[in-house]
Amino acid sequence: MTGLLLRRRTLLASAAALAAVPARADAPKTGGTLSVGIDDDAKTFNPALSVQLSERQVLHCVYNTLLAIDVDFSVKPELARSWTVEQGGLRYVFQLAEGVSFHDGTPFDAAAVKWNIDHRLDPANASPQRSLLGPVIADVEVLGPHSVAFNLKAPHPALLSDLADRAGFMMSPAGFARYGADFGRNPIGTGAFRFKAWTQGSSIALVRNQDYWEKGLPYLDGITFRDIPNHVIGLQRMSVGEIDIITSLSPDDLRQIEGNDAIATERARIGRWYSLQWQVDKPPFNNPKLRQAIAYALDRKRINELCMRGRAVIANGPTPPGLWWSSPDTVVYDTDLEKSRALLREAGIAPGTKLQLSVSSDLVLRKIDQLVAEQLAEVGLTVELQPVSEAESYARVVKRAINFTPINWTQRADPDGLLFILFDSKGFANSTGYSNPEVDRRLEEARQLLDQDRRKALYAEVKTLIQQDLPYVSLFFAAEYAAYANSVHGFVWPPDQIPRYRRVWKA
Amino acid sequence: MIGFILRRMLLLLPNLVLLTFVMFAVMTSWFGSPATMMLGRDATAEAVADMDRRYGFDQPVLVQYARWIGHAATGDFGRSFASQQTVAALLAPAVPVTLELSLAAILLAFAAAVSVNSLTIARRVITPMVTAASILGVTVPNFMLGATLIYLFAIRLRLLPTTGWVPWQQGVGPHVLHLLLPVITLCAFYTSAFSMVYRAEYRATARLLFVCVAQAKGLSETRVSFRHILPNAVLPVITQAGLSLGQLVGGAVVTETVFSIPGVGRLLVAAIGSSDYPLILAITMMILTAVALANLLADLLYARVNPLVRI
What we know:
The structure holds 2 protein chains of 2 kinds.
Chain A: H1 2-20, E1 33-38, H2 53-62, E2 67-69, E3 75-77, E4 80-86, E5 91-96, H3 110-121, H4 130-133, E6 137-144, E7 147-152, H5 159-162, H6 173-179, E8 193-199, E9 203-208, E10 222-227, H7 231-239, E11 245-249, H8 251-254, E12 263-267, E13 273-277, H9 288-297, H10 300-308, E14 313-314, H11 337-347, E15 354-359, H12 363-378, E16 382-387, H13 390-398, E17 405-409, H14 415-423, H15 437-446, H16 452-469, E18 472-477, E19 481-485, E20 488-489, E21 505-506
Parallel strand pairs in A: 1-10, 1-11, 15-16
Antiparallel strand pairs in A: 2-3, 4-5, 5-7, 6-7, 8-9, 9-10, 11-19, 12-19, 13-17, 13-18, 14-18, 20-21
Helix pairs in contact in A: 9-11, 10-12, 14-15, 15-16
Chain B: H1 2-31, H2 35-39, H3 45-55, H4 61-73, H5 87-120, H6 126-139, H7 142-156, H8 172-206, H9 209-216, H10 221-233, H11 235-258, H12 264-273, H13 277-305
């Protein structure tokens, strides 16, 4: 009896082993359609015009970028298979992949690369990327069918990561000639998926590109992006199997699916930087003692507990740990109410002084506002909350119509991408009025250096300076999650937080 | 009759001009230039200024408005700032969706309110239940009802799809299934509102002499109810239905957002989110025209049902 049972077990086990050989658990399976839940506020799939974050994951399916971002933010080849830096960083020469064609059959070559960059630089096309590329690129030179050079106005190492983002999406010149302004509804790239249909505000359908140049990819037959009005409904749809994957979830969203074995979650490696910003060149925040007093009055641990269920990383500067330019915290403002009150006295700020803090409809920012108001009341400051619509909020910050506001920024693949625009006195996103020649000098030197260690040292000094000057009060690096059905494999989530689906497969 | 229709349509024109001008002025003063929205967070001051020049956002409101209305008068509503597509191309697929949803909801609400009440008003036991349901229908907000219905029928019972939209062309069955929950959500309020109006009118009519005569003749309660009271009590409901069409658009905005339906309401929400004036203005004009047309239609229908009105 026992012997028989044993034999049967052995038989079963060997049968299972046999069956497992052709289809190992980690061997990707081809076929199936992935259903992705997104907030479809997409306006256009013309990468030269794209602004919305929701558009970006679709763009990465339909198009290839010249270069790509790896999971550690390093730059790796995509359409450009290799490159050399010449003339001390003034000239980049790229060797392009051969045998690549656009979905409309036209070949992808050096001329197409030149057309794409020229298209973005032409003011007539009103591309938001012109402000990024214009000051950097002198011209693009076709050296051969698969060889192209970028001549720069000044050394700019961040060019590589720019070409792994929106500016690097290669669209079909013939396709644009055909559709013109309607290209945004009829996008044509070289990507792993072709654009099939877009029911604006409801769904976006993509199908596999049978002639995709990366052999064996993609695994999926298609992807359908489905609009979800909010994460609660999105996760409900996931629990009934209508949706396979949702990203950008908050720790609070996860409560709904905790304990559900059919759904897996993954945390983003690098979370968004949340902070408070103000105008340091205007009263009342032009008083450095007031800024420090507020930094000491905040209890960031409690803010983390209540906004992020304690899962965020407390921030003491704009750069999270885990990036090549991350550096140790040098200036830290731990909660110290006595010190805060003393600083307020020194600053000559009377108890009961009123401050106006803008409050948007974003859930996390609203929570932060309420906690800031509560915590500043402890040291005798009265915070009045001023409502502003989420959509208008940033436009008003840039116009400097809002003085004191919570804000968040995603990390860029190159430190210059965020640090220069926010903290250099000439940075275009510098809405705080911050200007420190010491910071400017370091940022301007670092953006032209090719030596990464030198750059890292300069950015560490910048971090110390801005923590002392406090144009922003850092709060935390958010905890953000992706949730997907157990049948989904091969999901890659780079630190720019835009999901890539080329290697995703469904069991 | 034709003169009457023409006069009503002519009255619509100044209304449209006034409304769009007020909206234009409010939007430009409150939102400011849409260039920052269009360029996103990577907008430089220079790029914003360039965009302002290109689109004329830096010109006085009156100039901007005059240019817009000049084009609109010729039927050219321009291109959406955000997507660069023509407003007409964006609206074309959205309008039939909202029309279908709204008409289905209002017809269902009308039919349900009139028939249920005609059937049950005489039966004492059911009356309080219908009244309670009506109060509930009027007070529960749209988004709440929508979410509850999704939870009940799609998540718990798994009878219907949660949200989303399947066009007719992709199958009539799935189309109707996807339409059910949003239509019920949208019509709940109107069923209740129509119900209340109809009940009051029904009660008043039921006391009239001709009803007594009908009952004295020994006609069945159902026959008296449907053949004699209904045609006389239904008029105010028709007026109400016409007037409701304007509010219905508001309901459609919420319902379309909750159910991810690609209609005009969802489009309007997205347009407001990105300060897309051309789209916002075109949709507002469309809504106003639709309301005016619905009121006109209600008046005409009213006249058709009750010849007294025509005098």
